[in-house]
Design goal:
Layout (H helix, E strand, L loop, with lengths): L6 H4 E6 L2 E8 L4 E5 L8 H5 L3 H4 L4 E5 L14 H16 L4 E6 L1 H12 L4 E7 L13 H11 L3 H11 L8 H11 L2 H11 L1 H13 L15 E7 L11 H6 L3 E6 L6 H4 L1 H13 L6
Parallel strand pairs: 3-4, 3-5, 5-6, 6-7, 7-8
Antiparallel strand pairs: 1-2, 2-4
Helix pairs in contact: 4-5, 6-7, 6-9, 9-10
Protein name: 2-hydroxy-6-oxonona-2,4-dienedioate hydrolase
EC number: 3.7.1.14
GO molecular function: hydrolase activity
Length: 290
């Protein structure tokens, strides 16, 4: 990675009325907001560091670190609830009226929800797995069950099992990856936040609340999404099985789908070159009238 795109050189801070939001910035051009997923030891930098150099040739890349994942200041809200508000505060703080958004898994859901609420602020949206609802596959998926097991009782063995479920190519689960994820995931504050999201009790309570709620699930509102959308997915995803893509594919008014073979949940890592090419073609394509 070029020296100018190191962790330290790209790290920025933005003070807001709900604490400091940290992010990474690289490149010049139209703003591209990159939103990370969830899971043990996740950060925006770890999700997208390998893609920054190529995207920074075309865009001002802004990799936001959501509150509650050990980098930005936490808030009193549930981390998944805090993410949407943090996205708005971040764009307001930087004075950005409209952006393109790339969101990995949870980040794709947050991006879609934000685009539905504020359609004028998102030009194009790219999602990486995770967006939608199980149609043929059972829930919870293998990857989600392993995530819950690790969160309830963290151990290196459980972390490795979860990491192996994230990828098709097992060679990607290196000792370096395990170590950096372990350090972040077992930080006391980060672990406490994770248990609010993925602990078995929290997941059961969330499922019960959703079943009793009068509000429709987010995926039932995707027909309101106005932004042109590219849905990307790994064919061999064991966290969010590819049949989940059927709902957004059929309901988002202007959506296209690209599925990558021999690829798990981390499409932007495991099929890096092919994914970057597809996303750049989508984002740089000249706007046509709808």
């Amino acid at each position: 990675m070029p020296a100018e795109l190191t962790y330290e050189a790209t790290l920025r801070e933005l003070a807001t009325d709900q604490g400091v939001l940290r992010y990474h910035e690289a490149g010049e051009g139209p703003p591209l907001l990159m939103l990370h997923g969830s899971g043990p030891g996740v950060t925006g930098w770890r999700n997208f560091r390998g893609n920054l150099a190529r995207f920074a040739e075309h865009f001002r890349c802004l990799v936001l670190e959501f509150p509650g994942f050990g980098v930005s200041d936490p808030t009193d809200e549930h981390p998944m609830m805090a993410a949407g508000g943090a996205t708005g505060r971040f764009l307001d703080g930087l004075g950005l009226d409209q952006v393109d958004v790339v969101g990995n898994s949870m980040g794709g859901i947050i991006g879609a929800q934000f685009a539905i609420r504020r359609p004028e602020r998102v030009r194009r949206l790219v999602t990486v797995g995770g967006l939608g609802a199980n149609v043929f596959s059972p829930g919870a998926s293998e990857g989600i069950r392993l995530l819950m097991e690790f969160t309830d009782d963290p151990s290196r063995e459980r972390l490795v099992r979860w990491l192996r479920a994230m990828v098709h190519d097992q060679r990607l689960v290196t000792e370096e990856l395990i170590e950096e994820r372990w350090r972040q995931a077992t930080d006391p504050d980060t672990l406490a936040s994770a248990r609010r999201m993925y602990g078995s009790k929290a997941m059961a309570a969330r499922a019960k609340a959703m079943a009793q709620s009068a509000e429709p699930p987010y995926w039932a509102m995707l027909h309101k999404l106005q932004a042109r959308t590219l849905i990307t997915w790994g064919r061999d995803d064991r966290v969010s099985p590819v049949d989940m893509a059927l709902v957004p594919m059929r309901t988002i008014p202007d959506a296209q789908v690209t599925i990558f073979p021999n690829c798990g949940h981390w499409v932007m890592i495991e099929q890096k070159d092919a994914w970057e090419s597809a996303v750049l073609a989508f984002l740089t394509r000249k706007d046509e009238s709808k």
